[in-house]
Amino acid sequence: MTTILRAESIVPPADSPAGRSAASEGAPRNLVLHTALLAGRILRRWSRDPATMAETALVPIAFLVTLHIVFGDGISRVTGHSALYGSVPLVAMVAATQGATVGGLGVMRERDDGLLARLWVVPVHRGAGVLSRLVAESLRILAATVVLMCAGLVLGLRFERGLASAIGWLLIPTVFGVAFSVAVMTLAVYSAKTILVEATALVSGLFMFFCTGFVPLDQYPRWLRPAVRHQPFSTTVDTMRGLALGGPVLRPFTELVAWSVVIVGVCAVPLALGYRKASMRG
Question: Which residue range(s) make up the domain with 193?
């Protein structure tokens, strides 16, 4: 492996066959093609794993039904509308972030097993490794949100603002979900042990319990309300509630995008460098 890595570190002349091959690997067309191929690999692996499929569909539905039974009537009496307008988006965000934690552990496992190193020495666009994982995460989050939407419709969720708003509603969890995945993968490629990555599940748990999707904002202590209102789970829930039921959308969506852009901006370079380093182990 050391010999291979030393050979890979030598930049071939641009007019040589190796140089032309390297330039071809880095072409934008290959980035799209290789990203699609590697994302398909990840999705196929997930589809064959019963635990992953349960985490994507069955566990979120069970959690949603539990929230609806335990808190639904009480929240509906306080707010004047169904608690589903908050609980369904909340569970979608829990599914997105908990899945990101599982994905981060998967990156660590592939690094330690040497799979990332084997992929690094084949003619694949260097950006496709990270990008394919984010594409797969986006599709997983979208699939989980579709399942939760169907469950919500059965329980009584309705979209008062039409089809376009319903489509937008489906896409909202991917905004912060992908950003959270970037942060988790950044931790994963630098961590020798799983404890830091596993701790991200605790972060999403705190977001869940102190969120406007769990109970209405005015039910929290006054001193805590600003933090609850502006944290990313709340901005996601408020955006999705506005799209489904009516109400403010621009303000919470702007905050949600700001959260996501900041996280991706902070983590992008460390993730790229760390993923490269993790891929060259061996």
Answer: 2-279
